[in-house]
Amino acid sequence: MPENQGNTRLFLSFIMGTVIDSHFLGLTAIVTVGYQLLFFIVTALLKIDKVTDFAGSTNFIILAVLTLVVKGSWHFRQVVLSCLVVVWGLRLGLFLLLRILQWGEDRRFDEMRQNLGKLAVFWIFQAVWVWTVSLPVTVVNASNREPSFEAADIIGWIIWLIGFLIEATADQQKLQFKNAPENRGKWCNVGLWKYTRHPNYFGEVSTYGIPLLEASSDKKFGNVAGYATYKKTTSPLIPLPPQVYGNLPSWFKKIFLFELPLYNRNFPQEGQNW
Question: What are the alphabetically sorted keywords of the record (predicted)?
Answer without folding.
Answer: Membrane, Transmembrane, Transmembrane helix
